[in-house]
Design brief:
The chain is mostly beta strands and about 475 residues long. It contains four helices and 29 strands. The two termini are about 25 Å apart. It binds CU-O-CU linkage (C2O) and copper (II) ion (2 copies). One copper (II) ion (CU) binds near residues 402 and 404.
Length: about 475
Amino acid sequence: MKRRDFLITTSASIGATLFAGGATNLALGALSSKAPIITDLKLQKTSFLLRDQPTKNMVSLSKNAPPPVIYGIQDQQMQLNVINGLDEYTAMHWHGLRIPNKMDGVPYLTQLPIGGGETFRYEFTPPDAGTYWYHPHCMTMTQMASGLTGVMVIKEKTDIGFNSEQVINLKDFRLDKSDQLKQPYTLRGAARAGTFGNVQTANWLQSPIYNHQAGSLVRLRIANTDTTRIYSLYLTGADGEIIAWDGHPTDEQISMPTEQSPLFLGPGQRVDIACKMPAIEGKSINLIAKVRANKKIMATLQSVGEDQKRNIKELKPLPKNPLLKPDLKSAQTHKLIFGWSPEGTVPNNGFCGSLGSNFWSINRKAWPGDDAGNVQPLVTMKQGQTHILRLQNESPNLHPIHIHGLVFKPIRSNKRKLPSNWTDTLLLLKNEIVDVVLVADNPGDWAFHCHVIEHQKTGLTGYIRVV
Ligand code: C2O
Ligand code: CU
Ligand code: CU
């Protein structure tokens, strides 16, 4: 299908949607006097000093800076105008947000790719507070590898009691000797664990130092927005507690990582840590990543000023997000097998980029590419019902399995004891089988894929329909 044909057939309904949207706004306005949070996000090329020489042809939303942290408030409307200033297609996805399907940013499944010079207005009201993120879902491989990944913070309606917060966006870049972006993938990598970058950054910086008041309480929001790397993380010098996992307050406790048992944060995953800053000025907390045999300081929080003498116990517990309780007794189980792809299939380009080969599959079918035509959903669920997905990894590689628009929680694994916390991205180990439970409360066609982008783009993608 040609993108233009598609556009002509849908433009009539776009007008209707805008009208309906306006009516909804009026209704909302009557209930709440809060104006929507409006932000323009313009995709543009920029250069940035990642290593020794400026890296050109990076993609961001402003000049000489990484994509900004976007702030929203739970239950308050947001309007994000994505302006495509590039001469290629894009679409923006809000990872982890349980918003209406039309606003999910997946090309062909929920909207058309946004052409160069075009603007798409995303409007939604985030139902959940927490740490989320955004990235393109069209030209995903190259735009993300060029830097277009940002953190999205949805604040609670009440104050939890932190003195400050620190967002850390972890991301690798794959640079050549003159510090320019290399092709972000190799076919060899795509068929295995993925292709790794060679420069690890936090907020596009190497080992940045952030000042926070001595003895104060800092909310550390860490997001792994890399296309490939499973970050292996721990903190030194910190008194801390994990308070949220992939956006949602934890139900089951996750212990603080140490050098011996680091935290594995797969691509797409987030963790919120409540940290108490050292009481003495000049002392610091280091966030450390194990990268092969090395330990790399990803970021440092340094104590400044007078001791605030805070205590982690003074923090209010995070309010639970409005998630429905699963009804396990009525749940139906669906098997989803992740493995190699049958030989010979080639993904289509569909204006959203292709790696030219398929290596991966779900239930032995490789995704045919972004413009998937009338491919059927992996599973169809009735709205409101509880379902169990049996996620089975048939391969020796790890896969961060991600669902759009819904959240699930692990209930059993054949390999380990998994804390049962709500998530949108589950890191599936080698030959692991994990049952996750979900309540199909959000209608629509929801993308479902591995978040190693090379796997996503070479077959390990599908979608789940809720009607
Ligand atoms: Cu964060 Cu479909 O992706
Ligand atoms: Cu997503
Ligand atoms: Cu994968």
